[in-house]
Structures are given as structure tokens and as C-alpha cells.
Amino acid sequence: MAKLYFQYSTMNAGKSTVLLQAAHNYRERGMVPFLLTAQLDNRAGSGKIASRIGISENAQTFSPETDLFSLLEKQFSQEKTACVFIDEAQFLTKDQVWQLARAVDDLHVPVMCYGLRVDFRGELFPGSAALLALADEMREVRTICHCGKKASMVVRRGADGKALQDGAQVQIGGNETYVSLCRRHWREEMDQ
User: Fold this and answer.
1) Measured between alpha carbons, how far is 10 from 151 in angstroms, rounded to an integer?
2) Selected catalytic residue, list 28, 73, 88, 137
3) Is 88 noted as a catalytic residue in this protein?
4) Structural domains counted in the chain
5) Is residue 183 part of a domain?
């Protein structure tokens, strides 16, 4: 039975690693996965899903204008596809999440989305909010704060190393920009 899945976490929890491992498992069993990632995030190169541990794979990209249902319908007409994997799912629009839900319901394909839940201000990304509302199954991919507790928040650091209080919701970056923290340490960093 096809379902819409959302695996979420903060930065550096291994979401892309989990996605790449799952796609590998499909291939190992002779099935074809279809990989998508946000066009916006090209840190590893355009159309690449990459993990900090050094594994990567090519993927098709999506932008906010991409009609994902039409894209998947076309993909399935060209190749028997067992599963859809989406990295950086926080960058999906609400409409795109509905398109993915329609693909699950009408095309009978599992769709597995991996992304951030909240931004550096502790606010939901639009794609994540829609996935939290529509996903059939959700799972938190866990990572830890420097204190050893579960990290559920992230701060964005400025050039001076201090946590930024405001700014655009989306700023592509990695360990040089973002630090995952537990809620208590996030509050301390954000003066909350």
C-alpha cells in the first residue's frame, strides 16, 4: 500500500544518508527508485543528493514551479518506478505536497520525503508544515546537541559566530552556518 512519508529532523542528523541507503536497498532488489532534490540547494552540485559521510547520488531537481504530479506521471510512463525519494523536502510548496499526496493516492507509489522541520527561528517551513498535515507516516531522525540531549532546533550563526535572530527563512549552508541544539540551548543562544 502506497503512503506519503515524512522523515524530519534538524541539520546534520543523517537524513540524506538514510535516503541514499533506502534508495540503494530498492536498487539492490532490482527495483527503480526516482530521486528528487531541491534545485535551490546545490552545495554538492546541481542535481546531487550528498551526505556528510561522503556518499552521493544524482537526482532530478524541483523548483517551486515544478508540477510534481505531472513530473511523476511522466516518469512512470517511461520507466516502472517503485518509490519516490525527495531530499530537502522543506523547500516543497504546499501545492507540491498535495501533488505528492495525489501521486500516492492515484499513481499508487510510495513517496518518501526527507527534510528539516523548523528553521533557525523555530518556525515551520511551508513544505514541512504541509507534510506534517498530510503525511500518512512520520518519523523523526534524531541527532544530539553538544550537551547530549536530543537536538530539535538549529541556530544560524553570523560571521561573528553569534546566533542570528532574524533574516530570510532560507539560506543555504552547512556546518559553517548552522548548529543543531536542544530546545534549552537554542533558547539560550536566541535569548528567549
Assistant:
1) 7
2) 88
3) yes
4) 1
5) no
Instruction: Return the HEC string of 70-114.
Output: HHHHHHHHHCCCCEEEECCHHHCCHHHHHHHHHHHHHHCCCEEEE
pTM equals 0.88
Tell me the per-residue pLDDT of 166-191, one tens digit each, with 9 for 90 and over: 766 666 655 567 888 999 999 988 87
AA letter at 59? A
Q: Which helix (H) or strand (E) holds 123?
A: none
With 0-12 CB in 10 A as exposed, 13-18 as middle and 19+ as buried, what is 120?
Answer: buried
pLDDT tens column, 118-159: 988 888 999 999 999 999 999 998 989 999 999 998 888 877
Classify residue 161: in a domain, yes or no. Answer: no
Q: Of 167, 153, 84, give the one whose Cα is nearest residue 116.
A: 153
Residue 108 lies in a domain: yes
Secondary structure (3-state) at 43: coil
Q: What is the CATH number of the domain that holds 99?
A: 3.40.50.300
Give the residue numbers spanning the domain of 83. 4-142
Residue 82 lies in a domain: yes
